[in-house]
Each structure stands twice: as C-alpha cells, then as structure tokens.
Amino acid sequence: MSLLTVGQRAVRLVVTLAAVVLVTFVGHFLVPVNAATIGFAYLLLVLAAASVWGFFEAALASIAATLTYNFFFLPPVGRFTIADPQNWVALFTFLTTALIASRLSAEAKHRALDAIARQRDLERLYTFSRAILLIDNSESFPTQLARKLAEIFELNAVVLYERHGEAFYRAGPSDLEGLDDQLRDAALQGTSFADNLHGLFVTAVRLGSEPIAGLALRGSHMPDAVLQGIANLVAIGLERARAHELTSQVEAGRKSEKLRTTLLDAMAHEFKTPLTSVIAATSALIANPDQSAESKTEMIQIADEEAKRLKVLIEDTLEMARLDTSNIRVHVEPSDIDEIVRDVVTSMRNEIDDRPIKVIYDDHTAAIAIDRRLVSLAIKQLLGNALKYSPPDTPITVRVHNGNGVTVAVTDCGKGIPTLEQGRIFERLYRSPSVERQIPGSGLGLSIAQNIVRAHQGDLTVMSRPGETTFRLTLPFDQRGRKS
After folding, report:
1. Three-state DSSP class for residue 419
2. Residues in Cβ contact with 263 at an 8 Å cutoff, skipping those fewer than 6 apart
3. Do 468 and 380 reside in the same domain of the chain?
C-alpha cells in the first residue's frame, strides 16, 4: 500500500468517526431522540459509508455506532452495560444489520464499478476495432496499429513484434527495453508473461492456433479478457493488412498484364496502316518491274515515308511503355514550341486526313528549354485524343501562346467529358465506360502526357462541356527542380 493510499485511508477513517460523533451529538444533546430513531440514523450513516467508500469504513462505522448507541442511548446511559436483556437483542440486531447492510452495499458498489470498468473496456475495444478499419496507407500498418492501441487504451508503452516481417513497432510516451527476446518467444512459441505490480503484459498474438506476433503493453492493470480481446483485434488487423498487400500485388500484376496487352493491341492497330502502305508499294514494284521510272520513284518514296513513320511509331510505343512518373528523365535543350507543334501536325497527316485543323500561334512565342522529344509525344497524345473523340467533320483548334509559361491548347468539338469523369481521365489505363467499347484506345495517352508535363514542372488541365473540350498543356519558363 503506497503512502498516498495510507493517507487517504486515514482521512476516511477520521471522517467516518467524526460522522458518528456528529450524529451522536445531535441525537443526544441538541435534539434528543429515542433509541429507535437514533438507531436508524446510525444505520443510514453505515450505508452511506459503504456506498461511498467501502466495507472497511462501513464496518468501522458499525462498531463505533454500536458502542455509542450502547453508551448514550441504552440504559443504563453513560455505561457500556445493558440492564434490559431485550436491549441486548436490539443491540446485536443493530450491529448485525449494519454489518450485513454495509457488506451488501459495498458489494453493490463493487459490482457497479466492475460494470463501469467492463463497459469502458468494451467501448475501448470497439473504438480500437473501428480504428483498425480506418487505418490508411500513409505509413506502415503495424506502426499505426501500435499507435492507435497506445492512444485508445492510454498505455505508457506498446511494442509489437511481427514474425512475418521480423520487425519491432513501438508507440507510447515511454519505451520498453529488454523485451525483444520475450516478444520473439511469444511470436514463435506462443508464450505469455504478466507483471501486475508494474502493469507489464507480454502476450502472443494468434491467428487461429498459430502465433503470428508478440505484443507487449505497459499501463494500468488489464483483465485477461481485455488483453485477449486486444490480441485478437491485432491479429485481425495484421491479417487484414497482409490480405490488402496480397490484393495490391495481384492488382499490380493484373494491371501489368493489362498494360502489356493494351500496348500489343495498340501496336498492332497503329502499325497496320504504314505496314499496309509499305507492302502495297513494294508489291506493286515486284508485280510490275517494267513500269516507268517516275512510277517506281513514287512507289519507293511511299515505302520510304511509311517506313519512317513506322520507325517513329515504334519509338513512341517503346517510349510509352517505359514512361512512369518515378523514372522520367528529361534532357532539355532550347526549343521553339511553334516548330514542335508544326512537326507534330505534319507527322500526323495520315490520321488528320481531311479533318479541318486550325493552328494559331502568338506573334512572339518565347523559346523554352524542354525535352523536345517528350513534349512532342505529349502534344501528339492530345491531338490524337481530339481526333479520336470528335466527329470527323468538326474542326480542331491548336493554339500556342505565352502566359505564365508556354501553353498549347487543343480544342475539339466532341460530345464532351462528363463532369464526374474529368478527375479520372488522367489515370493510367482509365477509359470512360461510355466509349470503352465503341472507340479503340489504351487509356495510356493522357496519363503519359500528364507525366511528361509534370516532369517539366508544368501542368495539364481539361475544361469540357457538351460540344467543346479543351486540354491545356502549360510548361513554365523556370523549371528548376525538374528531373534530368
């Protein structure tokens, strides 16, 4: 028993005796009452002591009240003797009633406190279970799990050892040293340890019958049922995190396979046209070797141009396959954005065909240091997107102008992008359900264009309404901090 507890107990005893003295003084000197009335007063005092403090104080009050009852209210008054044998029965009945009532009252109080403690533990377990479901991906799951456990149960220290990763995760205002071996034993062999005097508990975290982790807690006394409940919730949380990790790996594999298939489909679709032209030209030369020199020259030029176009398509496809936000490297050189846009439009003449395309340049578009090849690829994705998703007889406008940087705006007259989808069109492999089965595509173009622009510290935005969609690609003049 600590000094503080001894002091509190002493204060309670003094207050209890003082209360008996006060009741005696009032009943005997100030407002004289008969023995039955004062007996009820003493009984109420005993019950009050039992309900407020407990049985020990109530028992002291019972004995003190019995003595004062005998001395001041049972004849002969002023002596610890009883003349009438009936008063012996009354005195014994009073003492027994007071003790039994105080015991019952103390037990009721104890049960009420236990019920409150159980309710608090259940509330904490429920809060902890909800916290497990709300843990995000901002940092490792076990780290957040240990922190939530320390916060919710107001623990001084928490250490979680996960057998799968062989790592320790710590939380709480203080630390637990020297328990690494015990935690490993708990995770491997399922052992447990408890030091109630210092509020230290080490337990195994089991999934079914197999231990998967060790958990050490230091704080106030914790019932075994609560400790086991915490261990079960930690096991569920760790298993949920592992399942989520496996799901992420499967999803990454699925996306990787989808990307491979998409690129192959895109390559087959894009390569078909130039290959057909090359084969047609060479077949014509082979079939008619005696045709005029002028005709042969024309066939050879067609084959050469389409072969060069095929080479560019292969290079672009390989570039698209490797581009990713984390590994894009830009190699800048002073470039004329007007010239880049003209080259892109020229290289896409077969896709453009007879489409009305209007290119507008500001009179004095400033030169800018960019990766010419990557920016050309990004603009090509935007122009290709406009050609694909707008009616063949509608115009497309490309405008190049200065502002907070150099901006290339591509506007088409398609049906527009639904508002709810505008925030997702730059996601890798995303395609709108409304066009996914109607218009061929990979879902990579806009994502790649955005990654290229971000690698240049620029911005790519979209504004869309029915009948008009505009993509704005902006590259800043000052690109300090970009990857190179």
Report:
1. helix
2. 317, 320, 321, 442, 444
3. yes
